[in-house]
Each structure stands twice: as C-alpha cells, then as structure tokens.
Design brief:
The chain has 332 residues and is an alpha/beta fold. 37% of the residues lie in helices and 15% in strands. The protein contains 13 helices and 12 strands. The chain has helices at residues 10-19, 36-39, 58-66, 84-89, 102-118, 120-128, 154-165, 179-183, 191-197, 217-222, 240-248, 279-286, 301-321; strands spanning 2-5, 26-29, 47-50, 71-74, 93-95, 146-150, 169-173, 187-188, 200-203, 227-231, 252-257, 290-292. It has a 7-stranded parallel beta sheet with strand order 8-7-6-9-10-11-12, with helices on both faces. α1 (10-19) packs across α13 and α5 packs across α7 (154-165). The longest helix is centred in the last third of the chain and has 21 residues, at 301-321. It is globular. Bound molecules: nicotinamide-adenine-dinucleotide.
C-alpha cells in the first residue's frame, strides 16, 4: 500500500521512514502543499498524508477521489483544514492523530510565557555583547497570578497542571468542565469571567465556527489591561488587526503566538532572503513585547515519534478493518 506525503520536511521523512520499518508501507514524499496543482502528479496512491496547512477542500477531495485515493491521513490533531462533508460524499476516510504528547504543546505555551515575562531572549543577546545591565528586563512573579485557560482537552489540561505547579490561580472555560482538574483546584467559569479576571490567557480550543476570532475587539475590551495572551492553538482564533490595535493601546501587554491566521504562506520554510509581503506579521514582529514562533509547539522527538506511529497505525487499521479502535482518530 502506498502513502503519499505532502508538506514534507526532513524530520517527517526521518521519523516516518524509521517508524515504517514496522509497517512496510511504500512511502512517497512531496515537499509541496497539497492543492489542485499537484493532484495530477499523484500516481496510483491509496493514501495521502497531510499536515496543518494543506488545504483539503471539496475541489481537492474530488480530484483525489478521481485518482482513487481511499484515505486522507492527517499527521496532526486539528482538522479545520479538511472538508469532512466532501470526504464523506466521495467515500474517502479521514483520520488524524488526536493526541500526541500534549505536554509538548503545553510546555511550549509555558516557554512563551516565561520568555515574554523574564525576557530571556533579550538577556541572551545582551550578555553576549557584554551588556550586563538589567534595565528593561523587569518581569513579574507567576506565583499568585491568575491564568485563564480556554479549552481544557489534552493540551489545555496539561497546561493547567503546569500553571498550578507555578502557584497560579487557574480559571478555565470549556464546553464541559473537567472533574479531575476541578479536583486539583481549577475553577471552571463562563468565558466572560475568564476574560475579566485572568492575567494570562492561553488558548487551547480547536478552531471552528464558534471559536473563529474568539479574540476580537469586544472580547479584548473585557480583558484586564496589561493581559498576556498566548495562542498555540490555531491562528484563526485571533482577529489579528484587533490584537495589533490592542498592542498599540497597551491593553494587551504581551503576546505569544505559535500560530498565525495566514501562516500557510510563511511557516515551515526559510524565507530569510525573501521580501515578506504580509504586513500584518511584520507589524506583529516589530513589537518588543510580541513573541512569534513558527508552529513549533508540537516539535519534540517524543511527539514526532507518536505522530508517525499513530498515523501509520490509523492507516493500517482503516485498510484492514475500515475502522480505527481509537474513535477520536476517525473523522470520516
Ligand atoms: P482536544 O480535542 O483534546 O481539546 C480541545 C478542547 O477544546 C476540548 O476539551 C473541547 O471541549 C474544547 N472546546 C471545543 N470548543 C470550545 C469552545 N467553543 N470554547 C471552549 N472550549 C472548547 O484538543 P487538543 O489536543 O487539546 O488540541 C487543542 C488544539 O491545539 C487543536 O485543535 C489544535 O488546533 C492545536 N494544536 C496546536 C499544535 C501546535 O503545534 N501549535 C499542536 C497540536 C494541537
């Protein structure tokens, strides 16, 4: 059985090739995104394996069906980039990796908080230039601060536990309160209360119609002046122009983003010799209190091993039993 990968990076090839020794699939790797332009280049493949910025819309799915593709395997958790209805219509199975080291993403969110707060990135550069002054590096104690967590699934839950360890008061909003977290001292409250009370807000819900631009002019106005906002979930949760205005007015005092609404044209490639045409990302990067990382929160050896293993196991189960034991992995 052949699997064709899109948006392949060297590390994908490395981890999947190694993991595939136990499965024996035929693997084909394309560096390009999946799109209508490339479907013609696919030759007799049963499975396409895609990542977060491959746009798998109805047009692409129709073309894939025409090529005889039976399975679309996402090697990520979020699936906002796939038209599941169209996949069902064309009888193509869609699977994902519902959980792979949620700690990797939660720990990256915390790394962003610590960097923004204690300015270690600036201190590193400063000391290398023999500038040992502390002016401009003032931070605050996390201990005793209020962390607001939106979405307490696998990642949000791990994040809550870390913040409790720092001695933070942790408030959370989710569609369903998590009993284990409540037992640990996390308070589940309506969204508006989180926005009003949190010193740090971290987004861990999926991107869908309800959560699109969850952070907008109206919700920012409810936040504390001086709030820190962290987004390691999906760029579309944030209305970027509204956040830029709030940074300019100092309502938002710190912003950490690992995801960006227009990231598919930027992230996962070296554009250091290019002219960036996206003025919004350039504006964001010009603020001294904004930290941008390029969708790297998942990027640990443990997570990549788990992603490769779960993806290949999903494909094997779909091929042999038309189903996956882990129901959360099966999308269509
Ligand atoms: P999950 O499905 O385990 O948890 C999502 C949680 O969000 C659930 O508890 C769900 O009830 C809740 N939720 C859904 N709609 C909500 C709403 N309207 N308001 C509040 N909560 C809502 O998912 P996860 O594994 O924790 O991942 C969360 C998100 O993180 C993914 O959807 C993905 O977009 C993102 N992610 C990013 C990276 C990265 O590298 N930056 C890696 C993995 C996942």
């Amino acid at each position: 059985m052949k699997i064709t990968f899109f948006s392949t990076q060297p590390y994908d090839k490395q981890f999947f090739t190694h993991c595939n020794e136990a499965y024996g699939f035929e693997l084909e790797f394309f560096e390009t995104h999946l799109g209508p332009h490339i479907v013609n280049a696919i030759n007799q493949t049963d499975v396409v394996c895609v990542f977060v910025n491959d746009k798998v819309n109805a047009e692409v799915i129709q073309l894939l069906a025409g090529k005889g593709v039976k399975i679309i395997a996402l090697r990520c958790a979020g699936f906002n980039n796939v038209d599941l209805q169209a996949a069902k219509q064309y009888g193509i199975h869609v699977c994902r990796v519902p959980a792979y080291s949620p700690e990797a993403v939660a720990e990256h969110a915390v790394a962003m908080i610590l960097t923004l707060n204690r300015k270690t990135h600036k201190a590193y550069n400063r000391v290398r230039e023999q500038n040992f002054s502390l002016n401009g590096l003032l931070g605050f104690d996390l201990h005793g601060k209020t962390a607001g967590v939106i979405g307490t699934g696998n990642i949000g839950k791990s994040f809550c536990k870390i913040m409790l360890g720092f001695g933070c008061k942790v408030l959370a909003f989710d569609l369903v309160a998590d009993k284990e977290l409540e037992g640990m001292g996390v308070h589940f409250l309506p969204l508006i209360d989180i926005l009003q009370q949190a010193d740090i807000i971290s987004l861990h819900c999926p991107l869908n119609e309800q959560t699109h631009h969850l952070v907008n002019n109206a919700t920012i106005a409810m936040m504390k002046k001086g709030v820190m906002l962290i987004n390691t979930s999906r760029g579309g949760l944030i209305d970027t122009p509204a956040v830029i205005e709030a940074l300019k007015s100092k309502h938002i005092a710190y912003l950490g983003i690992d995801v960006y609404e227009q990231e598919e044209k930027l992230f996962f490639r070296d554009l250091s010799s290019n002219i960036i045409e996206d003025d919004m990302i350039q504006r964001l990067m010009s603020f001294p209190n904004v930290l941008v990382t390029a969708h790297q929160a998942f990027f640990t050896a443990e997570a990549l091993t788990q992603i490769a293993h779960t993806t290949l196991s999903n494909i094997q189960q779909l091929a042999t039993q038309k189903n996956i034991d882990n129901k959360a992995a099966m999308l269509a």
